[in-house]
Write a structure and sequence with these properties.
about 1150 residues; alpha/beta; Rossmann fold; 5 domains; nine-stranded mixed β-sheet; 37 helices; 40 strands; Znf_RING; Znf_RING_CS; Acyl_Trfase/lysoPLipase; FabD/lysophospholipase-like protein; lipid degradation
Amino acid sequence: MDGGPVCDGCCDASSSPVSYCSACGVHLCEKCWEGGAILHRKENATRPAAVIHQKTDPHKVRLLDTILRPSNYQGPEVNQHAANKHTKWFGMCCSTDEDRNPVLEEFDAYPNIISRSVRYDETPKCPQLVSFVGGTGAGKSTVVGLLIKALPPTPPTILKHQDFEFTAPVVGTHANGNVPTSADVHLYADPTTYYDGTTPVLYADCEGLDAGDIAPMENAAPIRNEVAKSDRNVATHHIPRQMNSRVRRLEWAGTDTPPPHELPAGVQTSDRAFIVENLYPRLLYTFSDVVVFVSENSRTFQHALWRLIAWGAKSLEHSVNQPALPHVILLLNRTSRDVPVTEWDVDSATQNLLIQANTIPSKKVKDLMASLGLDVNEHIPTVEGLIKRYYSTFSVMRFPQGDQHNLLWEQIQNLRTRIHDLCKRSHKAKLSTNMLLQSDTFNIYLRYALDHFAATLDSPFNFVKVSLKLHPTPGNFGDHVVRLAANMCDSNGNLDRRLFYESWSKMVASSIVLDHMRKTKQGWASGDDYFSHYQGSLNQAFKAFCTKFWPCAFSKGDEKCVNVKASHDSKGHQNADGKVIQAGSYIPDRHFDTDLVEKWGSFLRSAVTRFEECLRETPTYETGMPRRQWIAHLEIVNDFLRYFAPEGFRSQKTCFGCLMAVPEHHLACGHVLCTRCVKEIGEQLPTWQAIKMTECPLHTVPEAFPSAQIIRFNPPLAGVRLLSLDSTNVCGIVQLKVLQALEGLLPNIPLQAFFDLIVGTSGGGTIALGLGASELALKDCTSGFTDLCRNGFAHRKIHYIPIVGKLITRHRGHKFKTRRYHSALKDFLQDSPLFGYKSREHLTLSSDVKVALAAANETGQKAIVLATYNRAEMDTAYVFDHPENHKDELNVWEAAAASSATPGLFKPFLHEKTNRAYLGGALFHSNPINIAISESKCLWPDSALAGPDVVLSVGAGRSQKRSEPDSRISTYSDSFGSTNMPKGHRTSPRDPDMIWKTFMDGRNASETSDRYIRINPLLPEVPEAGDSGRMRDLQALPAKYLLCEKELAGLRKVALHLVASLFYLDSPYPAIFTKDSVYRRRGKYSTFISFPRLTLTLKGNIKCRFSEIEEHTPHIVALGAFLQSKCNGGGRVWFEVTEQGEESLPHQVIFHLFS
């Protein structure tokens, strides 16, 4: 065996197998082991008599010794610390300002780990966190390293992914004394659960609790000069991003800030020891499924228990509605060999330690309770009861000293099994409360907690408030009802419970009647006849609200419990300050209880009946039925708003006008309404598909609506026109050149007016926003995009140094300066909400084109669509969502930054208002044509069957130098680097031309193929990402040299299609079916036989999309001039009317022009 151990007895390299004797420190083959008594006695002369000689696998010994006996921090250890920097999750450091105030840094360890664990086509995973805490030098990092490296027989899933190296902590040495090894909190992956199942286990290694302000060894390890060395060792492995995602100032740790509570003498809130012992526990306790508390000296177990209890006590009351308390394992490390054999069994060790703990004098227990702020006059619990106050379960495990290799190996596997079992129990508990955190939301919750505890250490973090922010778009009436109630809690949670109950119920009942009137329009029906249609979703809504959002009814004096039913049992009764008032189960309210759902249904049914009776007594000659119900509904709304401020009801997920739909239209007052409410409240303009809004139903006074507002809609029978722009960077100039050539073939009208929806990815999405959201003229958009590329794609100076530049780029994870690019985006695009009200004075072209961009979540598992519009949630292959609060909406430039955050080029984009991070959309949709088609069907379902009028897909150029299918993606694939891509995307179809081909092959065969045009110019050479010099060369090329004749012919065809699509049939009259007979010759003797015939008559007018309003007057003039030019020289312009399925000639309607 090459490199294997040689028998120390016979020195025969061929002897096999060879075992290691831990007691003697020698390798012996089978023959020498049996006859090696003299050698055993010689080696054992200085060892205790109790030493047992055991055969040990020498490979296990070598593996364990490399972890347990590291060298001092010299030479290669520096490289280990350099690599370990990439695993840092969060931690504190001093700011660069003059005061040197401490700040909290967050790093990319979590997304780096998760992005490699999940595939975009897999079921979402729910990560589970195991935190390792304890004193400095207790061996936390050693234990984590043993769990990661000392694996059982390799599972097949790990063998399949050997290209990924599982990083382990850098282990300290006794030579460094009490100096902490690693700083802050590092995150590692458990190899045994990383690829299997849906619950990957993550290990958090926390800095030692009692190191004081001594700088950890990690902080002293240089990194700049060691990048090349460490990079060579892992050249074929994934190099994660090192840069911090965000820096938060610790508001309570400034020198001029009062401390959050009384501090011991000589302690300051800015001290590292204070932050490690107070901030870190709040975060880790709140999010951990299991806590492993490592203690080195097993003989002083009382000290370890006291510290374990105190660590939990510092955190218990600093979160409310926590779904489950963590389980805790007390790991007694480096236990001597003379303990009884039963102590190596977890159950026996736990029971024996608790028996000893219960013998501790009550005075010492009282002293501990007093130090924790507990009432010492109440019944003194046992030590076990005190532990259970802070943890779900308690267990004890022991690790032996390092020379007992077999026993140590066995205990490592037992600890891993115990951790997995406890994680499963925690997962089950959270699943029962419906509060599982999936891989893409876990980090969002953590970021909200980081924000919270960076601002204050005293007030508790509330899980329910964050869950409301992340609540998905409602899918039915019941979800909208829950959303209304949740907003009521936020707006006025102190309202009397009876008034809350009645106000909510009346709004729901009135909305039911309104919806029924919308559907029937005439006649009356009893509430019993149609209430059952809503009852199922209402029952679910009531139960969901009572379980997830309504607090417990327990109170003690002035203190009220704030925990909801779903997460109450973990801590009992807690007040708003997080203090545990009293133990106990959830106490239901006499109004809001899941058992009272039938009573609530009866209350609603009675309210519906009362509203109907009032409507019947109202005269009908002045208003129609729906309008009359709106008047009655507005009275209910006004009564509702007496208790709740209108400003608190601005939802982007529920229309609070009717509770029946997702709101789509931002009003000038700030509220958002659905299309039905807008059309029923507003004034229909006679000349076009437009509504004039002069009031809002969510205001009690008309003066609250600042000014009249025009909302336009696509005509019902008009076709849809789509523009799709490929992913690109500097080659976006090619797309702009193509669009300029197209605009030159059209009337003198802005290009945006000819499209209903523009969809783009990365640079293509930035151009789409420039044209659609910012309404820039094509010329201005080209100029702005050129400046963006020139100023935004900035390399670091060191980038130009051969070899070193590439190593630094690989080390940092991105090629360009992200902040510089974001600054250039702000200069180019608007700093206004992506979806929100835009006053006409801020817009120049009066275009109503919608814009959508492709992006991905930070783990690379889900595709995301960001849009300037809102719609209901549909069954799509991507996520479409807007935040609940309009104040949390992405700005236009931020959406462009999110879509452009391509791995390898830029850092992930972190939206600080929502704590969501995004990757570039090219991971899924380098050609967003599938998004364009899908979104058009969601927005205009009536046109889904007929298909779009025009679909234009514009690429960013393909290279003449490459003929392989992947040649086009060279503009960004070289920067991706397959090792920097999230798992599952290395083989995903990223070639835009291949995506287009696949799309066309799967298209409905009945659709006319000439509606779909793809333009992707052939370039002499595709520039590298950020090559602004080559961009200028492309910009200087005339369109006739950039486009071949076939592509120019395609543009001319698109131009004619776009002009024709400006006209549509407006048919305000219902279709008329008539039945008559037709006589046809039949048979040998030519007999006339009568056949029935069904005739459809459809009347209407051919209209232009441009209306007669003042804003569109220049467009109409330009269109007339264009058509007149086509009629010059004897030409004609006409409309063709054909009957589908008939072979008869089309009927021509001549287009007459009048000057």
